[in-house]
Design brief:
The structure is a single chain. This protein is mainly alpha-helical. Helix content is 41%, strand content 4%. Strand 4 and strand 5 form a beta hairpin. The chain is globular and about 70 Å long.
């Protein structure tokens, strides 16, 4: 499927045949954000009332689209930029989008703001790296662009902060290459609206494809690091990917590793609370839920769930069926399988011998799509460093899972992961020591840099 709406699928084949370093030069990992509504603000209000409504809508859009997450550095002022965004070809730093006249967007006209947001071209013609998800924002409706502009200009405190220079490997620092990338992959226009779909489905499609840009994290990328599909017409769209060392699961209808076993209501519940009967959030998704999706309106949550439930699975896999054999062996004190004894010591107190956890507190490991995902990197990070559930208004507190990298070596962790992924009918592939070692090394490499910020 082409990245351009309506472009023939052969466009992907063309990009896959391009040669050499240019293939890896121009893309960037986009970050998962939240979602927003579809209907434009009413046009028949008095000027001041219309302006207030537009600002309020912009506030909602900015919050659920999670703008602050990328444009706020640790300890920095909101929206003032400076957050490092690691890509496959180097690191870029988010820009200042406060209304400061010199270092932010205070000197931007609406047209200039629109061009930056939907085309990736900043004031004076500087091209932005697509770590800023303008290929998805290209599909934003004009009233939403106007609302974001109004909110950022009227409600955000101006802060003077120059953007840090990107740290890109040669030749990727040459921004003129982005002109070619945009020619290949960028097209402004509405989202694909489907045929004969309901208004709610169309609303969900807009939220997922454009405002939420869910595909930025959940769609695999091609040789130019652009998303391999941009809507439900591509079998790659939302099929799961890897972002900054974390596996993002499939959001398609795959029955084991996707949302095939989740109801529409359970999808909405997860986005609102960070937990449901099947899973509890961890890693980057906890941050997204805490700062973004928990604030979505009920109609938006339901629209997203309706759209996601309409997308068929992309993997050939049978539905999950629970197998009690693992629970029986653990209950009998049989720890002959590699990793079983460590599971009983470190994991079973919360997740149980049956692997079913404790409803909406400690997630089940049996039948959990994240556990069965083909890529075990997120689970390796979880066991090494631990995680925290999303901080949401619907729960009295968040829950911390401790990391065990300090007490278990790489082979022991690999054994535990293999035991969990194989147990209770999960049937996922084993994890080797090298996978855990590589993830540990990457996490250790980043800790000094994070402590220094």
């Amino acid at each position: 499927m082409s990245l351009f709406p309506g472009r023939p699928a052969a466009a992907d084949g063309f990009s896959d045949r391009l040669s050499g370093g240019l293939r890896r030069a121009l893309g960037a990992v986009l970050l998962l954000a939240g979602c927003a509504g579809l209907a434009p603000p009413a046009a028949a209000q008095p000027a001041d009332a219309a302006g207030s409504a537009r600002v309020e809508r912009g506030r909602y859009l900015a919050r659920v689209a999670n703008c602050a997450a990328c444009h706020t550095a640790p300890g920095g002022a909101p929206f003032a930029g400076g957050l490092p965004l690691r890509t496959g070809v180097g690191t870029v730093y988010s820009t200042n989008i406060t209304p400061d006249a010199e270092t932010g967007i205070g000197g931007y006209s609406l047209a200039e703001f629109d061009r930056a947001l939907r085309e990736g071209v900043a004031k004076h013609g500087k091209r932005l790296y697509p770590a800023m998800p303008y290929p998805s924002y290209a599909r934003l409706a004009e009233p939403d662009v106007q609302a974001l502009y109004a909110y950022l200009r009227a409600e955000v405190r101006p802060v003077r902060r120059e953007a840090a220079a990107p740290e890109m490997r040669w030749p990727f620092g040459m921004r003129w290459l982005l002109r070619v990338w945009n020619w290949l992959f960028l097209e402004r226009g509405p989202v694909h609206a489907g045929t004969g779909q309901s208004a709610e489905w169309q609303r969900g499609a807009y939220l997922v494809q454009a405002v939420a840009h869910c595909g930025a994290c959940h769609t695999p990328r091609g040789t130019l690091l652009a998303e391999r599909g941009l809507d439900e017409r591509s079998r790659h769209f939302l099929a799961g990917a890897s972002v900054d060392g974390w596996a993002s699961t499939s959001l398609r209808g795959d029955p084991r590793t996707g949302l095939g076993g989740w109801s529409r209501e359970e999808i909405a519940e997860y986005l609102h609370t960070g937990r449901n009967a099947h899973a509890t959030s961890f890693g980057p998704m906890s941050e997204v839920i805490a700062s973004s999706t928990q604030f979505m309106s009920r109609p938006d949550l339901e629209a997203v769930a309706t759209y996601l439930k309409s997308i068929p699975g992309a993997r050939d896999e049978a539905p999950y069926r629970y197998d009690a054999a693992t629970a029986e062996r653990l209950a009998q004190g049989r720890f002959d399988a590699a990793g079983a004894r460590q599971y009983a010591e470190f994991c079973m107190p919360c997740h149980g011998a049956g692997g079913k956890g404790f409803a909406r507190v400690f997630p089940p490991l049996a039948g959990n799509p994240a556990v069965m995902d083909p890529d075990p990197s997120a689970l390796a990070s979880l066991l090494l460093d631990g995680a925290v559930t999303a901080q949401v208004g619907t729960a009295a507190t968040d829950y911390h899972m401790p990391g065990y990298g300090w007490t278990l070596d790489n082979q022991e962790l690999a054994n535990v992961l293999t035991f969990i992924r194989a147990g209770w009918g999960n049937g996922a592939s084993p994890v080797n020591e090298a996978t855990v070692a590589a993830r540990r090394a990457e996490l250790d490499r980043r800790k000094p840099a994070a402590a220094g910020r």
